[in-house]
Amino acid sequence: MAAALPLSPVSHQLCRISNRFWYNAMTPRFCSPVSSPCYIGVKGIGSSSQLRARHPLISSAASTDYLLHDVGATVAVLSGAYALVLLFESLTKRDVIPQRLSRKLVHILSGLLFALSWPIFSASTEARYFAAFVPLVNGLRLVVNGLSVSPNSTLIQSVTREGRPEELLKGPLFYVLALLVAAVFFWRDSPTGMTSLAMMCGGDGIADIMGRKYGSYKIPYNPRKSLAGSISMFIFGFFISIGLLYYYSSLGYLHMNWETTFTRVAIVSLVATLVESLPITDQIDDNVSVPLATILAAYLSFGY
Ligand SMILES: C/C(=C\COP(=O)(O)O)CCC[C@H](C)CCC[C@H](C)CCCC(C)C
Ligand SMILES: Nc1ccn([C@@H]2O[C@H](COP(=O)(O)OP(=O)(O)O)[C@@H](O)[C@H]2O)c(=O)n1
Question: Membrane-spanning regions, if any (predicted)?
């Protein structure tokens, strides 16, 4: 058996980071019901602060690893966000898909892929802030382009209805703020944030596509919305929420009682769908009302 070659300091560091990356991404975590972030420490389960108190040498090495890990994850997700917008701008420019559909697909995919990306961040208690940095940067990008005289046309083509820069300061900006709130205040050990993104991105996004195509029967109290759109929002929002909860349960971040979870998610989806159907879009954007209603319903339903 060939002897292991001595690693250079850089290679050694890279191996340590790579090992930590796969450990953090794939190792189940057992979070306490109060959803305080915790992970398997040296002696059993402990929070990162408890581990630092017990093992200062490990804590400094772990902190460095976590920092490098989270910086790498942030760069990767930021790059993914930029590439997604660029992809749909290219598809729109080459008339592969119409601009309106392009925008809705960006609406659906951005938030859901963001929610799916959370496990690549470290087990550190600060990881959620690194993840939230991605919607923060995109929010600043929207503000700069929405206010600027020479806005970035890629962003405008992929994200606005009518190609006006000021549109970036409404729906899209509220959208990225909702992603930031979900990451910072709920993160991957709470069903509340991920269900809010499932309903805003998956549910509300598909409502537009299905409603425009099949929405001949309008909602009596809101002729601008249709039954087909709302039913689509409820169904897709429900299944995407269940999918995200299963995804995070299978990775060990959540422990759901599946006998009651389906009913709870159905109630949350119904509340979000009813709020979205209301004739209040001129007063409050869907990207504010839908996540807020979902967060309230989910927090009352799940308790965390
Ligand atoms: C088109 C968008 C919102 C408009 O909503 P509405 O008016 O149709 O109701 C979405 C805007 C997306 C934003 C420009 C980019 C957000 C990227 C996200 C923070 C991170 C995605 C990462 C992932 C890995 C692709
Ligand atoms: N429940 C719904 C939601 C949207 N829609 C259709 O999708 C279009 C855009 O919906 P919206 O104003 O909520 O669009 P966003 O604010 O989500 O971008 C509506 O004008 C309807 O044609 C629907 O038919 N039923």
Answer: 71-92, 104-121, 168-187, 227-248
CA distance 264 to 45: 29
Q: CA of 286: how far to CAs of 174, 175, 196, 292, in Å?
A: 9, 9, 12, 9
Mean pLDDT is lowest, of 28-42, 102-116, 158-172, 194-208, for 28-42
User: Atom 9 of ligand 1 has which residue's CA nearest to it?
Assistant: 171
Within 8 A by CB and 6+ apart from 192, the residues are: 186, 295, 298, 299, 302, 304
Q: Which helix (H) or strand (E) holds 86?
A: helix 56-93
Question: What are the residues whose beta carbons fall under 8 Å from the beta carbon of 171, sequence distance 6 or more?
Answer: 285, 286, 287
DSSP 8-class letter at 31: -
Distance CA 177, CA 295 (A): 14
Q: What is the pLDDT of residues 245-300, one digit of tens each?
A: 999 999 999 999 999 999 999 999 999 999 999 999 999 999 999 999 999 999 99
C-alpha to C-alpha distance for 292 and 295, rounded to whole angstroms: 5
Pocket of ligand 2 (CB under 6 A): 171, 204, 207-208, 211-212, 215, 224-226, 229-230, 233, 276-277, 281, 286
Instruction: Please report the atom of ligand 2 found closest to the CA of residue 212.
Output: 22
- Indicate yes or no: pTM above 0.80: yes
Name the helix (H) or strand (E) containing 224. strand 222-226
